[in-house]
Specification:
- The chain has helices at 3-14, 57-65, 68-94, 101-108, 111-175, 180-242, 245-288, 304-335, 378-382, 393-398, 405-432, 435-484, 502-505, and strands spanning 38-40, 46-48, 386-387, 403-404.
- β3 (386-387), α10 and β4 (403-404) form a beta-alpha-beta unit.
- By secondary structure, it is mainly alpha-helical.
- The chain contains 13 helices and four strands.
- The protein is rod-shaped and about 125 Å long.
């Protein structure tokens, strides 16, 4: 029965897969992985030739640089706005009213065309802003779904560890009177597992909060800019029909700033879409080959060889323990001159051995016969043959109770210990083989990566369209405001009233 201790030692070895560096990402790059070639602004725009690595600042710099088109246009647009504002201020101070009359007279010929262009661009901008709102909502739903999938996987791992802790704590107290050293080792391992469980819970909770904040900030930024854009577009249309020139100037100023923010979000959306595609590439590589992959160092998982060795060791130990137990039962039958067909007289039946034989010792509980006895029920059967201390030896021999109480207690401790190991073995197997993580990655790759990437691309395209339309609409507004400056219009008319000649005014 000392074989049960060996099975516990294998659990101690298993605990080494949980290291204090659980949340530290690896940086090894394999030749066959998806190699990235992007300008790295930190290295003076030299190519970043590495792979997916979220702890490498050069990787993040290269990803952020993919959105440079949005950031650059936003900066140029802002600079042009400042220069245009300064130019118009000085021009209004130094110029006379009549200096631009010839140009505005020329614009009067295109009033209808200018108004139609304004309506067209306004309509396109409204449609683009509506698409931004719809795409942002779609991305929000898919982001939450992806986040919940990953968070739930972390909670499942933590739950499995807590089940292991409960089982090992019980085993620890069972073995304390008979194997103090093993009990102390179990105590140390239980504390390690508890620490790792708390680390995972803390990691999930803290990062879940950070992710929620990032999701909400991104969602609100897109939503607010799109909605404010819609309101300003409607306001501009009303002010243009009312021909309130100061109000139109204010709308142009606010929309100029808003257009710059649209370009910033366009760059951010493209950058984030690139990062998600990189992540999906890495997950795809991991699903196809978990061993030689950059994500292998991200996860607190052992390689398949090590995990198979540990699980095989536990399986062979329990298998040998049950075989030895069956041999002892056979010896009891022989002592009483019985065979196994009379096992119902003793109530033992067949002891369930959920492990296959050598060399794999796979865990297959379905191979046990329906009437097989779980090893955890063995103490109940042995109690019928136990000579308790309050009974005399003569009475025990007369009643066929030949098993000393101390032996019964020890046998019970080891039997319950093995049963506790069997109870948590599926969780142990899942943790050792990283089944939960692999299943989560497979779920993300097969069912979430492509839709999520498409929704982000749709969001980027919508924001890009809105930014482009707003640029041309701003230029149209400026021309229209310049045309209306100092002119009189009838309400809701698109044509200016005729100028009064100098002679008539005299």
């Amino acid at each position: 029965m000392d074989g049960a201790v060996a099975s516990l030692i294998f659990i101690l070895v298993f605990s080494s897969l949980f290291s204090p560096k659980l949340v530290v990402f690896g940086s090894a790059i394999h030749d066959h992985e998806h190699t990235l070639k992007r300008p790295d602004p930190i290295r003076h725009l030299k190519d970043y030739n590495g792979g997916y690595n979220v702890t490498n600042k050069h990787y993040w710099a290269s990803v952020a640089f993919t959105g440079v088109h949005g950031y650059a246009i936003a900066g140029i647009w802002t600079l042009c706005g400042v220069c245009l504002g300064i130019f118009l201020i000085f021009k209004n101070i130094s110029s006379r009213e009549s200096s631009s009359s010839s140009f505005t007279d020329h614009l009067d010929r295109y009033c209808l065309l200018l108004f139609m262009l304004f309506l067209l661009l306004t309509l396109l901008a409204i449609v683009a802003a509506s698409f931004v709102i719809a795409a942002t909502h779609s991305s929000l739903q898919k982001t939450k779904k992806l986040k919940n999938t990953i968070v739930n996987a972390g909670e499942d791992v933590s739950k499995s560890i807590r089940k292991l802790i409960t089982a090992m704590t019980r085993i620890q107290y069972l073995l304390l009177p008979y194997d103090r050293k093993a009990s102390q080792q179990l105590n140390v391992t239980t504390h390690k597992l508890g620490k790792e469980s708390r680390t995972i819970q803390s990691f999930v909770r803290s990062h879940e909060h950070s992710i929620n904040v990032a999701i909400q900030v991104s969602y609100l930024a897109h939503l607010v800019i799109a909605i404010v854009n819609l309101l300003l577009l409607i306001a501009a249309l009303v002010l243009l029909l009312l021909h309130w020139h100061p109000g139109l100037i204010i709308i142009i100023l606010f929309c100029w700033i808003l257009t710059a923010l649209c370009w910033v979000l366009t760059g951010f959306d493209f950058c984030f879409h690139t990062f998600i595609e990189d992540t999906c590439f890495a997950i795809e590589d991991y699903v196809q080959d978990p061993q030689d992959n950059i994500l292998s160092s991200v996860l607190p998982c052992m390689n398949s060889t090590t995990s198979h060795k540990i699980l095989t060791g536990i399986g062979s130990t329990i298998h040998d323990f049950i075989d030895e137990l069956k041999l002892k039962i056979t010896e009891v039958y022989s002592r009483f001159g019985l065979d196994e067909e009379n096992d119902s007289l003793f109530g033992f039946g067949t002891i369930c051995d959920p492990f296959s034989g050598a060399p794999n010792y796979s865990y297959v509980p379905e191979v046990c016969p329906k009437d097989a006895t779980p090893i955890g029920n063995l103490p109940d059967m042995l109690s019928m043959f136990t000579c308790y201390k309050e009974n005399s030896t003569k009475t025990c021999l007369r009643d066929g109770k030949f098993l000393p109480e101390d032996t019964y207690n020890k046998a019970s401790a080891y039997s319950y210990s093995v049963q506790y190991v069997l109870n948590v073995f599926p969780d142990l197997q899942s943790l050792a083989e990283c089944t939960m993580v692999k299943n989560t990655f497979s779920e993300v790759f097969l069912h979430q990566c492509r839709p999520y990437s498409k929704s982000l691309k749709w969001q980027w395209a919508s924001m890009l369209s809105l930014s482009i339309f707003m640029v041309f609409l701003e230029l149209t507004w400026i021309v229209k405001a310049y045309q209306e400056k100092g002119r009189s219009f009838s309400r809701c008319s698109i044509f200016p009233n005729p100028r009064q000649s100098n002679s008539s005014s005299e």
